[in-house]
Amino acid sequence: MTDRRLAIAAWESLFRAQHEVLDQISEDFHGDDLTQAEYDVMLTVARGEQNAARLRDVTANMLISQPSVSRLVDRMVARGLITKCPDPDDGRGALLRATDDGLSAFRRIATRHGQSIAERMSVLDDSELEQLRTITTKLRERG
Fold it and tell me: What is the 3-state secondary structure (H, E, C) of 5-67?
């Protein structure tokens, strides 16, 4: 059985580290073309085949509720960052596709954001990064 105090201390350390790192790297989104939430949508869409993804896949990857994702997507469509059309493979679903403007904005921020993440995570060596990825994957799979 896990030591309860150690589990709580580890959780608190993980939570505080996440908060501090997110605060630092969220500066990449101030005054730019995309908000952090929009970037998250574009990340899933841009990784998809032909820069497209199903709305349900975008929703599954987001840390906000489905209605919030729908409103966010509608705002992004209105801004010309993505298009939304019926999913030909799922009559109830929608397919999102990045526009050229959306991809340009995403790529500008992705370059800078990736650099910020790499710099912030450089306090860990490759072995520690692999351990962190293994540990966080294990925590996520437990749910």
Answer: HHHHHHHHHHHHHHHHHHHHHHHHHCCCCCCHHHHHHHHHHHHCHHHEEEHHHHHHHCCCCHH
Residue 109 CB contacts under 8 Å (≥ 6 apart), including other chains: 28, 29, 32, 33, 34, 39
* DSSP single-letter state for residue 125: -
Q: pLDDT by residue for the chain (143 residues), tens digit each?
A: 678 999 999 999 999 999 999 888 888 888 768 988 999 999 999 999 999 999 999 998 887 788 889 899 999 999 999 999 998 888 788 999 999 999 999 999 999 999 999 999 999 999 999 999 999 999 988 75
Helices 100-121 and 4-25: crossing angle in degrees, nearest 10, is 130
Report the amino acid identity of residue 35.
T
Contacts with 8 (C-beta within 8 Å, 6 or more apart), sequence order: none
**Count of CB atoms situated within 10 Å of the CB of 22:** 11
| Whole-angstrom distance, CA of residue 88 vs CA of residue 95 | 8
